[in-house]
Amino acid sequence: SMAGNFWQSSHYQQWVLDKQDLIRERHHDLNILTEEEYQKIFIFFSNFIQILGEQLKLRQQVIATATVYFKRFYARNSLKCIDPLLLAPTCVFLASKVEEFGVISNSRLITTCQTVVKNKFNYAYSQEFPYRTNHILECEFYLLDKQDLIRERHHDLNILTEEEYQKIFIFFSNFIQILGEQLKLRQQVIATATVYFKRFYARNSLKCIDPLLLAPTCVFL
Fold this sequence. Notes:
Elements (H helix, E strand, L loop, with lengths): L9 H6 L3 H7 L1 H4 L4 H21 L4 H17 L7 H15 L7 H14 L13 H14 L15 H21 L4 H17 L7 H10 L1
């Protein structure tokens, strides 16, 4: 969060990286690409996110947040880790929720990606946009984890191992999935409930609210 004191914010403490940090984190990519080629990839995908956001009629704030998520991810991970063409729309999808713009429907997101790739970026991609809703949702969970949104867990890790902690999240993700299916909710609603659940425990200990109470509350929201 960047609310309150910037110098105490997670952005300053974890994401203001100096040049040495950046070079160290991306040396795998710079074994293959020149610095200039690497920068051109980021310019390309910043443009992609901008055009995708405009086509979806998102506020500029949502587009800017998506671009920050995209750059943050690759500040800590190689370009080979996740295809940027999948990560870019996933960042837009997540940013629309975080900025409380309203959830973009999965089908609209995929259709708009297909249109943007075909009409605006056909010079770079001869094939159509290859990803579907399930890819976006899987990528979103990975992005959430890597964004360090699940970060405020040191209290819990004094009691649980990392593996036990992760198993709790897998258990309650399954719980929310099954509950949503029993209630005949759309997959998009179930996915949003899971994001709410993870975001709460990104900022609070598991001892704060019983997960068995929070999980159905997130579905209700």
